[in-house]
């Protein structure tokens, strides 16, 4: 069955998890079975076909992507232009997005997933007091959702990682990623797996449903940005500093439509989990994904996580897992790691890069609070054994001098395996003794699951994290919190010092006895000398036959709601639509569909829609969640006005700025506008995942042919979209804009729809189209 699932060709070879690792582990090894099928021969065959067709050297990302083509003989390939039809090897879903993905899969009517798939419970655990208590409370509060996901997984053949198992991306790295695999995940930080030589891409739930249904998955052929690394990481400089620096160079949209491919002699100075950190935060530059070439660091990590035979095969096929000599990149960045200094990025955006040595002065100049209120380490970006070891080495120096953290300090292990291992090896005790609170193996404060009590909402303050994202109000729902992202060791040093105005490379601390001392550079083992302690068994493998398993969704539930199909296209142009809101400035998926306390409604479309665009800034009045209802003349909250328009059969559009939909992969940011009557989103430019999510749900994502036309739209305009009867790839549409003074103007709108995606729009959604074709 798994051979069929993976569409394996002749000569597929089955691998087995090492007997030694099985003997040591206290967990079910069935979780390894999906990756025990590795078909490098098929990958190599596809690469050879494409290389011969293109007659040029290939980048690594091209090898893996084109190696998964549905039809390598005939697929049109043009980086940045054509759409590829691909066959990913597997799917992974975190619990917040898995709810809607599984509800959509149930709606498809299919009996079982066609590729190995897993659900990971990591998003619904709120950080309050500590790991044990928080996990127990989450299991109670989210019982209905966990039961739904567990039973749906069992029925449809999806593995289920229980709450407490860890963060999806760390679990994937430990179990499912391997060099050359293609994995899609319903979370924007899925690219974490690129640290193990994988092409791992964040998508919305509807894309996951396509792959789980056995349908070829579409992706616009990515451009490739090369980052050549020379020199060696040393001292206080960490892998995190590589991506912090790259984010400063490329900005939050510089990687859009591209895979970032790291290469060069400097790669070998970075650990496998360090490479994962770099790939993880590549989501913050809009990259489709990021990847590193296979090397000895990856081999060692595979061996340490019980997958030595996969490492042996990767060695055999290593030519397929590194770029061809002479391959060309669409853009090339060069970084000398010998010269790279520790960085800290923020506040409010992850591409505002500063050397740690300068951030204190910059903060003073800009009026940012210097006092660090909380330091937070962990998250899917930085929660490896090496990360925790380096942070502990800094903490131990402070303890030896009689110091503890001046700031509050929290520690989030990335997985149950990391938690158990750092506890066994003493890191947890050191981090606790210096003032740290060890939280649950979950996302926690990184995604806003943080019941923060030390400051009031609206109180200006600074926090420093080893997370990946620092949008306004993301971590604690306080828009006045200035969040900075950096490495775990710098977070630890700043939490001890209690101020942004501290450079551990040059500045001194005062010991308990009054003497001055300087912190030595951090150190930490890449991997545990005693091997990993797998910890508690947290994995549920689906039964061979789940057809008798019952999946219940109560019609009175406020957490879960079965989906009703969206209506089909009307067959004509979209006439006289209201401008619901003209958004000013940055509008991420956090602004469109906030997380934090709203996560509990991710399985209930009508309830979650009450947060639609409540974080976006209205250009009319610079207010948040305050727009004019042009049917009543009164001001109201965005979702309320949208519901009023829908109840009165008035369609509407949203107008937005650059890189609209940046950030998370959450498809709720597309589902909610569709549910509340939105027909089109018209902006200067889109982030990749959000644009695709809108198409999947039957909403028109359109861009101004002339970006300055954004300024021509007024809040009280009505807009008609013309040209839909002859809607075709590459053919612009027209917005007829009627102003309240009676004047009109026609604006050209571009789109990136291909023929298949136009069929989604006409059917009302991709899921509707899938049903039509069954």
TrEMBL record:
Q: Name one Pfam family in it.
A: Aconitase_C
Which keywords annotate this record? 4Fe-4S, Iron, Iron-sulfur, Lyase, Metal-binding, Mitochondrion, Transit peptide, Tricarboxylic acid cycle
A single Gene Ontology biological process assigned to it is: tricarboxylic acid cycle
| Record GO terms (molecular function) | 4 iron, 4 sulfur cluster binding; aconitate hydratase activity; metal ion binding
Database matches in PANTHER family: ACONITATE HYDRATASE B, ACONITATE HYDRATASE, MITOCHONDRIAL
> Main localisation, per the record?
mitochondrion
Q: Source species, please?
A: Sander lucioperca (Pike-perch)
Stored InterPro entries: Acnase/IPM_dHydase_lsu_aba_1/3, Acoase/IPM_deHydtase_lsu_aba, Aconitase/3IPM_dehydase_swvl, Aconitase/IPM_isomerase, Aconitase_4Fe-4S_BS, Aconitase_4Fe-4S_dom, Aconitase_dom2, Aconitase_mito-like
NCBIfam families assigned to the protein according to its UniProt record, in alphabetical order: aconitase_mito, PRK07229.1
- What EC number(s) does its UniProt record assign? 4.2.1.3
Cellular localization per UniProt: Mitochondrion
The cofactors named for this UniProt entry are:
[4Fe-4S] cluster
Reactions the enzyme catalyzes: citrate = D-threo-isocitrate
Job of this protein:
Catalyzes the isomerization of citrate to isocitrate via cis-aconitate.
Q: Where in this protein does the record put region Disordered?
A: 515-553
**Part of which pathway?**
Carbohydrate metabolism; tricarboxylic acid cycle; isocitrate from oxaloacetate: step 2/2
The record's PROSITE patterns line, in alphabetical order, gives: ACONITASE_1, ACONITASE_2
Q: Which GO terms of the cellular component aspect does the record hold?
A: cytosol; mitochondrion
Enumerate the spans annotated as Aconitase A/isopropylmalate dehydratase small subunit swivel domain: 577-706
Q: How is the cofactor bound?
A: Binds 1 [4Fe-4S] cluster per subunit.
* Domain of life from the UniProt record: Eukaryota
SUPFAM superfamilies for this protein: Aconitase iron-sulfur domain (SSF53732), LeuD/IlvD-like (SSF52016)
- Report the family membership: Belongs to the aconitase/IPM isomerase family.
Please identify the protein, giving its name as recorded. Aconitate hydratase, mitochondrial
Positions of the Aconitase/3-isopropylmalate dehydratase large subunit alpha/beta/alpha domain: 62-498
